[in-house]
């Protein structure tokens, strides 16, 4: 409702419509000016209605969670190919030809490396199709690129994993 | 597509199909129709990955393809179809209520796999049902087939577009992509199959976790290499049919509630006399809800169900409910008043609602800035002078419904993100708990003592257990909220669609 230009210029303070018509009487206190964007979590005036409970609600909820888990196991869930750490480069087994161009050798190495990656990622997917639910699955993710952050995952390490996760022998106390 | 819808699609695709499919899917939703190489180039993804992603998306009816001039094949994503993934649990549950467990699993398999042959569905479902049965009992293929046929007859499942049988009259080169057809009359035609067999249990010896699985069993082929009798005949769930059912359900329950309000004292039995039925119908027809209309008097009058009005009433009720829960019951009273009277001046609102001016103003502005109510100018004089213009408050149901729908998409996106955040925060603890469960399960299988099991269980401390409990409770709440919001989305979308059709 504020006039354009902050009231500078001619006809300052004039509005294009009649204030009284929308219920602002003359001399009424206007609400305080807005100096910042509204809070991210504005205070809740009224408690939300409770969610429907009951057999149907429970069943549909369980269904939803089951479906989510099931879809992750199906072959339609495509995980990004893991570039293996320390990729072994297959060196062609033949006496190095001095006549061969450096460029050609590099190209050959690259194609072989790509082929190996393709094969391993294909193998990975086949394995995933057959394996039952296993936690090791999580390791197929490239840890470096697991989340949508710019930092590699080791940045977030806080020493928790230090000392190894040894579940085998729990007799000893862990300090 | 609005940003909110795209965001929600992105979350759904990523959660169900992974990042790569998400990247390709969202790109197509944003840019529209594109050929293969353009997708690869624009997203910086290898051709191989793009192909895999497109396969998954097409398989699940989320992307379609078209052959354009000069043989270029373009792929197009269906954003609204992606959003339907939110409703999968509801479709499956509905199938359960109508066709019991067999129907439930058939629809579930079709939704999980996108498209399947009938023989594959029957076999899979028979296997799954057999797993749940007592030792020695199996599910017969015939029984599953019967349920499948019933689902097809009632149109809950339908044929996917198929490759037409060519007469080889045109011996030219094959088109770059098969051109698929559908025909109304064949869409629910079940092939004549004689599927004979029983469901098989998974033999427990196959599941020695340590060693390799007995044979690398690819998921799609049958155990014995028989030719698939209905190869090429694929089925999918018919979501529109489910929507029809939901809509009918919503209307019926709304009317039932209404009837309850009016006739709580009257006994309602199946042998209603003609006169009483007449009275009911008249009351329904006169009811301001306008669900039932009377068209003509011949033969005692014909009653029709006015679908559009019914959907409008449901949408309006939704809006009222939201205003009530967000702004309080006095605001809701004003809202209903403006709805009823269509246009009201500031003064009139104060008088009719019997709410003091200052409060009424405050409430009206709250609803105005929330876009539930709008202001309409009616000039008294041709010069539109402000002092001689009416300013009327009114509710534009269509635009308020659109606004609310948009908010629903945002809400669900927030719910999903929060749920993922909660899960990620507790990732370590969750993994530990899963490991412990796996250890306990394997120990139980090899017959361990109670004391040993106890020891393992104690690996999870009491505060950790508490944390897991809280996490479970929160995740359940967030999931249940998603389901709830999707119900609202369905109502609003149905109303908006019905309104747009009439324009």
UniProtKB/TrEMBL annotation, chain B:
Residues 7-66 form the RNA polymerase III subunit RPC82-related helix-turn-helix domain. Residues 211-228 have a biased composition (Basic and acidic residues). Residues 146-261 form the RNA polymerase III Rpc82 C -terminal domain. GO terms for cellular component: RNA polymerase III complex. Pfam families: HTH_9 (PF08221), RNA_pol_Rpc82 (PF05645), RPC3_helical (PF20912), WHD_POLR3C (PF22536). Keywords: DNA-directed RNA polymerase, Nucleus, Transcription. Residues 198-230 are annotated as: Disordered. GO terms for biological process: DNA-templated transcription. It comes from the Eukaryota. Residues 319-395 form the DNA-directed RNA polymerase III subunit RPC3 winged-helix domain. Its main location: nucleus. Transmembrane segments: none annotated. Coiled coil: none annotated. Signal peptide: none annotated. GO terms for molecular function: single-stranded DNA binding. The keyword Transferase does not apply. It is found in: Nucleus. InterPro entries: POLR3C_WHD, RNA_pol_III_RPC82-rel_HTH, RNA_pol_III_Rpc82_C, RPC3, WH-like_DNA-bd_sf. The keyword Transcription applies. DNA-dependent RNA polymerase catalyzes the transcription of DNA into RNA using the four ribonucleoside triphosphates as substrates. Specific core component of RNA polymerase III which synthesizes small RNAs, such as 5S rRNA and tRNAs. Component of the RNA polymerase III (Pol III) complex consisting of 17 subunits. Belongs to the eukaryotic RPC3/POLR3C RNA polymerase subunit family. This is DNA-directed RNA polymerase III subunit RPC3. It comes from Ailuropoda melanoleuca (Giant panda).
